[in-house]
């Protein structure tokens, strides 16, 4: 599974609409409205490298109100949350 982190600059008046439409795109697992230099961050998860272009360049970038995207491809994930779930035996703490 390939994961890409997509930073999205968009028309400020359309942030909720851009987020909702982007979240509906197949391959987009999550969209966050954030503070800082960008308006939204989307997580894209696909099985094949070629699908990244289909999702990001052909769909996310073409959502009405998207002004610019910047994509980071993840090499490896480090997450305490994921490790805790992987080793959990189903018992509550």
Low-confidence stretches: none
Helix content: 25-40%
Structural class: alpha+beta
Largest sheet: 4 strands, antiparallel
CATH superfamily: Lrp/AsnC effector binding domain/regulation of amino acid metabolism (RAM) domain
Proportion of residues in extended strands = 25-35%
| Record field, number of beta strands | 4
- Do you know the CATH topology? Alpha-Beta Plaits
Strand order of the largest sheet: 2-3-1-4
* Alpha carbon gap, first and last residue: 31 Å
What CATH architecture do you see? 2-Layer Sandwich
SSE sequence, one letter per element: EHEEHEH
Count of all domains? 1
The geometry reads as globular
Under CATH at level 1, the class stands as: Alpha Beta
- Integer average pLDDT: 90
Radius of gyration: 15 Å
User: What's the number of helices?
Assistant: 3
InterPro entries: Dimeric_a/b-barrel, Tscrpt_reg_AsnC/Lrp_C
Protein name: Transcriptional regulator, AsnC family
Domain Transcription regulator AsnC/Lrp ligand binding: 6-76
GO biological process, one term: response to amino acid
Descriptive overview:
With 93 residues, this protein is of the alpha+beta class. The chain is 27% helix and 32% strand. Strands 2-3-1-4 form a four-stranded antiparallel beta sheet. The model has no long low-confidence stretch (mean pLDDT 90).
């Amino acid at each position: 599974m390939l994961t890409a982190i997509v930073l999205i600059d968009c028309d400020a008046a359309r942030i909720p609409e851009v987020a909702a439409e982007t979240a509906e795109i197949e391959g987009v697992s999550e969209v966050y409205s954030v503070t800082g230099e960008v308006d939204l961050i989307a997580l894209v998860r696909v099985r094949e490298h070629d699908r990244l272009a289909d999702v990001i360049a052909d769909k996310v970038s073409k959502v009405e109100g998207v002004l610019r995207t910047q994509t980071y491809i993840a090499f490896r994930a480090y997450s305490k949350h994921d490790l805790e779930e992987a080793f959990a035996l189903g018992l509550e703490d």
